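Support reply, case 0932

Customer input (verbatim):
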Amino acid sequence: MQKLSAVKGMNDILPPDSARWEWLEEVVRSLMQRYAYRAIRTPIVEPTALFVRGLGEVTDIVEKEMYSFEDRLNGEQLTLRPEATAGVVRAAVEHSLLYDGGKRLYYMGPMFRHERPQRGRYRQFHQIGAEALGFPGAEVDAEIILLAHALWAELGLAGVRLELNSLGQPEERKAHRAALIAHFAAHQDLLDEDARRRLHSNPLRILDTKNPAMQAVVDGAPRLIDHLGEASRAHLEQVQAMLDAAGVAWSINPRLVRGMDYYNLTVFEFVTDQLGAQGTICGGGRYDYLVEQMGGKPAPAVGWALGVERVLELLKEQQRAPATVAPHAYAVVPDAAALPTAMACLQRLRGLGIAVQMHAGGAQGLGSMKAQFKKADASGARFALVFGADELQAGMLTVKPLREAGEQVQRPLADLAALAASLQSPR
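Our regenerated output:
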């Protein structure tokens, strides 16, 4: 039969790499709890209209990258989620989460975009995100930025810089839009096909072009920050002041616009120079009009999302990834007759918090002691627990160090709690 493979750009996550994913997720869960953010889980499949309405009809994601299909049973147009914010807002509206005030939420999970697979950019990729719904103040913008900044510190990452901008409010964007159209129309011969198509539908997206041939005309375009009114400027200045007070460095990037149409006021990205073209590891901003767009009562909101694959890649680059998780001990069983006793002891040790790997042989038998010790060493365990016939007859088992100096010792089976404490002791 033909060998089946994973879909291009959708990758298996195998041990030992899966342990690094779990470690990152645990660090995030602990940090989110300290900031009083609570987990939300939304469906992977959503109505296509959710993303067309929320992200913008002329964004790259909606036009080119979504995995959309028709439900064969009822004809409904559905899409594998390309991002999570729209789904979080949909859930908040559908379940009236904001009826008693704002909510701080976070999520983890896979997203899907049909892109050319490359380092840090896959068709199934994973995001971790934080969303603060129902809070209007600049202090929440600062809080959510500080949350991401604290995560880099928890992970031990260096060289991650924060870039800020403001997209203002709709009237300010309208004035800037007119100025952009005039500027790009005057240089239409320098625009690529995408930019010409967006000139009148969404000129702000032209600023996000990756086409090097257009950089000069983009650099010369009117800046949105120069069209901000007093209130929008004050909001950005308040965010900056709170970041300064917390000792977090930032810089203004007047061309930072993000990839979705729902943003207003503060937008930001955390960027590194160590991942090449995929240098943005986290981005977000304020989106005060999305809740109303999704059919809810008007409510402000701000959030961010990070790319899990990119963060793990950066951890690897900086040699910050944790060591492979290994069991405390590996059970060596010379004779199959000892298996019932060995398994009962291991079950009790696991109940006491000990990670122990059971040797298994199946129909071929358990194998020689030499072969079992070779597998014990390969497991990464610190100790081998040897269930020999003589030891068991004496009510004992042998504990042999595998990773450090020391003599093997015998421990009584009647006091597994003491054995568990010794196996967990520091080196």
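We compared this against your earlier run and they match. Two observations from our side: Residues 208 and 257 are 7 Å apart (CA to CA). The first helix runs from residue 17 to 34. Please reopen the case if you see a mismatch on your end.
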